[in-house]
Write a structure and sequence with these properties.
Layout: E1 5-13, E2 18-27, E3 32-37, E4 42-49, E5 63-66, E6 69-76, H1 79-86, E7 89-96, H2 104-113, E8 117-124, H3 128-134, H4 144-151, E9 156-164, H5 166-174, H6 179-185, H7 190-194, E10 203-205, H8 209-219, E11 238-242, H9 244-248, H10 252-261, E12 265-272, H11 276-282, H12 293-300, E13 305-311, H13 315-323, H14 328-334, H15 339-343, E14 352-354, H16 361-372
Antiparallel strand pairs: 1-2, 1-6, 2-3, 3-4, 5-6, 7-9, 7-10, 8-9, 11-13, 11-14, 12-13
Length: 374
Amino acid sequence: MEERFAFLTEWYDPTASLVKRYQLFYYPSSNSVEMYDIKNQRMFLRRSKYDGLNLDDLFVGNRITIFSRQLSVIDYGDPYTSKRLGSKKERTVALIKPDAVSKIGDILEMIYAANLILTKAKMTRLTWFQAADFYAEHQSKSFYNNLVQFVSSGPVVAMELMGNEAISVWRKLLGPTDSSIAKIEAPASVRAKFGTDNTQNAGHGSDSVAAAARESEFFFPTTVGRGPPNTAVLTDSTCCIIKPHALSEGLTGKIINSISAEGYKITALQMFSVDQVSAEEFFEIYKGIVTDYTSMVTELCSGPCMVLEVQGKDVTTSFRDFCGPSDPDMARHLRPTTLRALYGKDRVKNAVHCTDLPEDSPLEVQYFFKNLDD
């Protein structure tokens, strides 16, 4: 019998202002899908091939797009799917400490190579009291004060990672707590490459399922509160969006490394899941002007994106030039070292969005780091 996975999904119908539920079936052998309307008890989409989806995209909490319809995966649809896909799936928190924030691109590449999925991310700066709260379990340890002082000394990047046995996979990727030992015992680890000692050791990883849940709630609260604020300065900067397709293809680390290598400073970084209404609002200035407007909206809300605040000399103009022509084929012909030439696929899936005009830069940065982060 052909293998089939089932998921419970929700779709918000903006016309009717209703949330509709569908049973989504995925057949990996043919990369095809079908959808069943639960309320009306009828087939909504007969089995159809859909190349824009793969099994790695199908996990609880993710948002996927099926033929321009954005669905939230809220649960597994049958015991077989739950057992096969959910039994080993874990979420863990990865905290990149101040000494390794400049290496976030390299670390993201290591995370992708380890088959971990980045589900949330935010650059923030903890106060002494926030850092003390985060490390409260170590309060009686001799290194506690030094650890709290160091973690609150500069920006950090908090991430939620998901994957099979994610907690142990990330801790193994981190390496031994003491960076000097890591250099000997695990020379390919994060701490061996970017850490210095037992405190300035590049990163932190949750040590249990309970710790992961607590730490995720600390940085990405689902209840009352916003968590630690982002680091956006909102002035003298421009906006860069690493598009959903590039994020899902594991290009985020490479793109960030290219931006840093060009001499730009990333002053804020955060993942967002943009809904249809917000995507239309953000791209409103292109409506009726750019023929790809509808496709641009669909791509932006097709999954999580990574938004960067970037600073540099004459930043809006120079960064727009660095991104290159919107058509990657043209970019590869005319300017082969630009971001879109290196990482883009077509005019819509062209790796990154950047601000076109200097006067729009503060508006675009504020839209994400102030409006959508509220």
